[in-house]
Design a protein that fits this description.
217 residues; alpha+beta; Arc Repressor Mutant, subunit A; 2 domains; four-stranded mixed sheet; 10 helices; 19% strand; elongated
């Protein structure tokens, strides 16, 4: 076992995830070049996985448990929150399995294909990126930021620029996204005002207001 692998293994970070700060703390006397060499050797031996630049994970034989994909998503792009199809699937609103993890972010859109899965980030401009987003316990070790159903819908409409309430209405959700109408009617609407206020995009705001009227009938 490589020296880096052994020290991270003893540290036992949740899911085996660690970053360059952890490496620096484990080898405070080593130079930047020496730490890079330690990482290179551990990756070359297959003991450590390079997730993306600056983010690493112990290979399966050396870690305790598997990192939750929502937690990995938070590490790859900050700030961001799980949203769009991934959040709708998390809330059991769409029937299909979702490939990878989709997130909303204030940064530019990007994608990562990693040894731990595929992660997509969609730029969603919002004055309050936390509106309609909650910290949820994913399992015993992990927490994550996940959009509420209404926030996930708002992010989805924002990302799909051709969608508008005046032309698509609720059919976008019931037909294109295959959300059951009964499930839509059970959605909590308590955060709709907060979410609307956070979006400057009038198309998104009009869609949420139209949806609220539809669900309040």
């Amino acid at each position: 076992m490589q020296a880096l692998t052994e020290r991270v293994f003893v540290l036992a970070p949740p899911g085996g995830l660690f970053d360059l700060t952890v490496v620096r703390n484990l080898f405070p006397e080593a130079s930047v070049g020496a730490r890079r060499l330690l990482l290179h050797r551990a990756v070359a031996r297959g003991e450590v996985l390079r997730v993306t630049r600056g983010v690493y994970c112990l290979a399966e034989p050396y870690r305790k448990g598997h990192p939750h994909p929502f937690a990995v998503a938070a590490l790859l792009c900050f700030p961001s929150h799980v949203s769009l199809e991934s959040a709708l699937a998390y809330h059991a609103l769409i029937p299909e399995a979702v490939y990878g993890v989709t997130c909303a972010t204030l940064q530019r859109s990007r994608e990562y294909t990693t040894p731990l899965g595929h992660f997509s980030y969609v730029r969603v401009p919002a004055s309050d990126p936390t509106a309609g987003v909650k910290a949820v316990r994913l399992d015993r070790q992990w927490w994550g930021f996940v959009a509420s159903p209404l926030r996930a819908i708002a992010d989805l409409v924002c990302a799909r620029r051709r969608i508008a309430w005046s032309t698509d209405g609720v059919a976008f959700l019931t037909e294109s996204m295959r959300i059951e109408r009964e499930d839509l009617r059970s959605l909590p609407l308590d955060d709709v005002e907060e979410i609307c206020a956070s979006f400057r995009n009038q198309r998104v705001r009009a869609y949420l207001m139209g949806l609220r009227r539809e669900l309040s009938r």
